[in-house]
Automatic annotation (TrEMBL):
Alphabetical UniProt keywords: Heme, Iron, Membrane, Metal-binding, Monooxygenase, Oxidoreductase, Transmembrane, Transmembrane helix
Cofactor (UniProt): heme
InterPro entries xref list: Cyt_P450, Cyt_P450_CS, Cyt_P450_E_grp-I, Cyt_P450_sf
Metabolic or biological pathway, per its Swiss-Prot or TrEMBL entry: Hormone biosynthesis; Plant hormone biosynthesis
UniProt name for this protein: Cytochrome P450 716B1
Gene3D superfamilies: Cytochrome P450
Gene name in the database record: LOC125515336
GO molecular function, one term: iron ion binding
PROSITE patterns the UniProt entry points to: CYTOCHROME_P450 (PS00086)
UniProt lineage: Eukaryota, Viridiplantae, Streptophyta, Embryophyta, Tracheophyta
Family as reported in the entry's similarity comment: Belongs to the cytochrome P450 family.
Binding site for heme: C427
GO biological process: sterol metabolic process
Amino acid sequence: MDYLAIVVALVVAIAIHLLSRAKKRRPANLPPGSLGLPVIGQSLGLLRAMRGADGGNRWVQDRIDRYGPVSKLSLFGTPTVLLAGPAANKFLFFSSALSTRQPRSVQRILGENSILDLHGADHRRVRGALLEFLRPDMLKMYVGGIDAEVRRHVEENWAGRGTVTVLPLMKRLTFDIISALLFGLERGAVRDALAGDFAHMMEGMWAIPVNLPFTAFSRSLKASGRARRVLARITREKKAGRCQPDHGKAPRNSDLITCLLGLTDGHGEQLLSDKEIVDNAMVALIAGHDTSSILMTFMVRHLANDDATLAAMVQEHEEIAMNKGDGEALTWEDLSKMKFTWRVAQEILRIVPPIFGNFRRALEDVEFDGYLIPKGWQVFWTANVTHMDASIFHEPAKFDPSRFENQAASAAPPCSFVAFGGGPRICPGIEFSRIETLVTMHHLVRQFRWKLCSKKNTFVRDPMPSPLRGLPIQIERRTSPPP
């Protein structure tokens, strides 16, 4: 008995000693909250909430109500700090101690050489290359091509139909635009297969990165591999074509891959490796396809029940059309006159931002609001925290495009409207998205009237917002269709 008592006392003493040492090693000023279960953490809870009726907004707000604007949790296998509010957004977008670092699931699907995960000189090099393709003087040349794609799409998929489902149509439209302008990929079986792989790829973007059969992550990885092989083949073919003296060189503005292949460093070497081109083409495919299609879908949804806003948009677009010839394509100058339509788009982006949130990674121990964010931890931010803050946007649930009439005079603090992110990493494709949206809405509001097939006005996130059943609507031609 004495021997057993000694053993028990020794075990207790060792346990107390180890706990004491662990407590000393643990930083005293970590944010409040819990990391939850190993690997899983709060990932399942967040994903489940995102598929709920409010797209996960209540889940985030409940954490803020419980722990405050800074709290710790674990998402997708990594310790994470959730930050909320304009000051937190500014810290996230401008701090040199933080770098973008996507969840492991996103890295594995998109590749580790994408602009989303680079920092420092590599980020500046890749971003500069992408911006070369997205310069305003080059964007002006794409308007006519986008207009032609939209006209064809509307005629084939909307005209003469009694009912259409908006989201899949918008996804296919923007995919076709991106395929043509970014990859020079013509319509046909290859483009159709790539569209299918892209849809499967998106399913596992935010998932626990365990590659088990029959999981969304496993399907996404396989789809990513197929899509990557297509883009790698396109890159090789365009690169080989550039080396053929009898074929000449395609204009640098012909598509994104050709543009990136044509960029060289100070020594005449190709600026981006082929693998970097493929990884960033994957990112460009998502950025130019998914966000724009979701924005236009939710614009259609809102306009079905807002006659005043729709009438104002129709008037704006009819005035533009009156000054154009029959069948004449839209131009960059026409887009500059669509100010009200873009304010409507911005208000939709405020209420239903396509990107729920994003991640940064602490490159070193860093402090915010008195709390330590340890090196290697993720930092997570969400757009809705500021977009729906009544102290920033008066009556935030109310649809009011006039909020964006004079943004310079707005009372909203910096880094409050963050639909496109902010700081040095603000989305480089904002103008491209604007062109897609304005051209598409120009043709839809002038040609059709519509009403929703479902009275329920709900959506889920998976991880992008998706309205109920993809938003089926009944459509009819306007009584006096424009020429």
